[in-house]
Amino acid sequence: QVQLVETGGGSVQAGDSLTLSCVVSGAIDSTDYMGWFRQAPGKEREGVAAASPYGDSTYYADSLKGRFTISKDNAKNTLYLQMNNLEPDDSAIYYCAAGYRGPHALRTSSYRYWGQGTQVTVSS
Q1: Mean pLDDT in the chain?
Q2: I want to staple 97 with a disulfide (CB 3.0 to 4.6 A). Which of 20, 91, 104, 111 is the partner?
Q3: Cα separations in angstroms, 23 against 7, 40, 63, 83
């Protein structure tokens, strides 16, 4: 059974930083594309960032303007998302995704497995 557990969310002020972590366990190849997605109330889940199997290639939503950084530690089966200069519009539930099946790393349909999510709330 594949399990993804996200941690690191919380309530912060605009301009603050947070680092999310996602630990993957079970019968899955963690050395594969993985991604972070988010879903705000009343909106569709959207791709935030994705990393190639060994983290040497990364992909980001255009709207993030370089504020977020994704990284992987395959030895620890962990995916990270460093979020800097947070804005109220970044408030959402953040989900980790694995089990990549293509074709696009920032599309929800490209992943088989999802975590339960971690809430990020940014106040102005």
Answers
A1: 94
A2: 111
A3: 9, 22, 26, 18
How far apart CA 113 and CA 69 sit, in angstroms, is 21
80: its two tokens: 């990270």
pLDDT in tens, 2-54: 999 999 999 999 999 999 999 999 877 767 899 999 999 999 999 999 999 88
User: How distant, in Å, are the alpha carbons of 5, 70, 124 from that of 37?
Assistant: 14, 11, 22
Place of tokens 């999802």: 114
Gap between the Cα atoms of 70 and 59, Å rounded: 8
Residue 28's nearest CA partner among 101, 108, 80 is 101
